[in-house]
Amino acid sequence: MFCMWFFMTLYAQNVLGYSPLGAGLALVPSSLAVVLGSKLAPRLMPVVGARNVAVIGSLVAAAGFGWQSTMTADGSYLTAIMFPGILMMAGAGLAATRSPRSRPRARRRGTPVWCPGWSTPPARWAVHSDSPSCRPSRPRVRGAARRRRH
């Protein structure tokens, strides 16, 4: 979905004759639409439900893709790039935003986890940055108390 920016840049430069800077600036509205969609989604979720927001976002994005698939070599900026791009990216922002109330599922103690600041995690590890496993599981004990434990 996000490769749209690459192809729209090529379309704006090679077909519509925009300069590289002009092509980049032509995509600013669709970039802002992602932000708008992702900021709007948490406000809509309590009203219509998280699943419905994701479905609505997917349908809006699909409408944008459908509209953009009709572009021709003599298309204009508004009908070939701007409005379809806004629809696609606003829909993507709506569909991809997690509910603020959703939390990662509780995991068994000792399950591998990746934590911020570590090197790249193995693919089989789950990514939970707010997991308690990112912290030491027990406090460090020093001195006499340490000798009693062992």
Offer a quick outline of the entry:
The chain has 150 residues and is mainly alpha-helical. The chain has 6 helices and 2 strands; from the N terminus they run αααααββα.
SSE map:
Layout: H1 4-15, H2 20-26, H3 28-48, H4 50-68, H5 77-96, E1 113-114, E2 126-127, H6 144-149
Parallel strand pairs: 1-2
Helix pairs in contact: 1-2, 3-4, 3-5, 4-5
**Strand order in space, largest sheet:** 1-2
Helix content: 55-70%
Number of DSSP helical runs = 6
- Give the CA-CA distance, first to last residue: 56 Å
Shape: elongated
Mind explaining what this structure looks like?
The protein has 150 residues and is mainly α. 57% of the residues lie in helices and 3% in strands. It is built from six helices and two strands, in the order αααααββα. The longest helix has 21 residues.
